[in-house]
Amino acid sequence: MTYLNMEKDIINIECIEFHQPIGVFYVGKINIKDLLSISYADVRRIEREEKNDIETFFGIQRNLSSGRVNEIADYVKTSDATFPTSILLAISSNDIDNPTENGNVNFNQNEKVLSVKRNENIAQIIDGQHRVFGLKKAFEQIDMFHNEASKFDLMVTIFVDMDPENQALVFSTINKAHTKVNKSLVYDLFDLAKTQSPQRSCHNIVKLLNEKQGSPFKDKIKMLGLTDDSSKETIAQATLVELLLRYVSKNPMLDRDNLKRGKKLELLRDKDLERYFLRNWFISGDEAKIAKLIWNYFSSVKNKWPKAWDDKTKILSKSTGIIAMMKLLKDIVIKIGIDKVISEEEFSIIFRKVNLKDEDFINENYKSGGVGQSELYKNIKEQFEL
After folding, report:
1. Mean pLDDT over residues 63-74, rounded?
2. From CA 306, how far away is CA 299, in angstroms rounded?
């Protein structure tokens, strides 16, 4: 299926011609509908998880990640969606309109236009297939192909007559040398946002916990995800933010987009509120209540096991301990009361019944990862009388 008006058999792409050691290529602008009309066959092949030239060259088979496609599709539907980086395409000179007699590209240097034939099988996606397929899925879900919202332009880099070896080289350079963005840095950037969002609220709470005197987390949070051996930091900002988000929002990106569009979020009740027990405070703008609850809770944890909390060789104030304790927090809140800020003393009364000692919080007892987190959670919860 194609989403284009096929009466025109040529696509004129506004381009700039580049000369680099690998050869000549073109960077230009193309509408998503036009891009799908020339690359759809390749995307369909990826859907069937078949091998293409690049995968054959590497001797591997890359699968399209449905989770990544869905994530991109959700993002595309937000009010400030953008893809400012280039989709890489390989096109044969045979599919360039009116090539020169020796097969070279007929690039209009005056108008800066590259004209390609509109054909479903001419453009091989070297890099960017998840973005293209995510866009396609989003547009199908909300029928954007038939309205003005389909005016979504993309940057493309076009290589003409590029052999599979060079395609593989470019692909591996981008994907193997690519540095993943630090998630703590991403959340730190929400500090610059002007609109309320779950991400911004949770970042503000974590920042307060790290900076305020008397906080159990004072100077213990790696705000940018980086630390050294001499610091007291034991837990990454991203870990804490995501633990809070788990109880604030089912879909933080959707909440952020709705708030940016001026929509009101509905308060939760009953079982939904038990699952997202911090959500109503977030919606009501009561970030201080969330911060105070977390402050009181982890102050009682610190007071119960002070040596383990301040010892970087122990797991209590690291991700294994914090994740387990945040899971326990939900059980306690549901029992004592979702609508109240539980005091430090109330939390301490519960922890008095737990017979774990400071020296028990070691990696030998609770391995890093989900298994260790679950073990710690169960060992403490079974001693509660909730």
Report:
1. 82
2. 10
- At residue 37, the 3 state secondary structure works out as helix
Write the DSSP assignment of 167-204 as a string of letters. HHHHHHHHHHSPPPPPHHHHHHGGGG-SS--HHHHHHH
Rounded CA gap, 9 and 290, in Å? 59
DSSP-assigned beta bridge partners for residue 245: none
Which residue's structure tokens are 């040529």?
10
Q: What is the pTM of this model?
A: 0.69
Highest mean pLDDT among 61-70, 164-173, 377-386: 377-386
122 touches 43 (CB < 8 A): no
CA atoms within 13 A on the CB side of 143: 2
CA angle at residue 41 from 39 to 46, to 5 degrees? 100
Under 8 Å between Cβ of 134 and 71: yes
Please give the Cα distance from 166 to 297 (Å, whole number).
56
Residues in the chain: 386
The residue among 188 and 309 whose pLDDT is bigger is 309
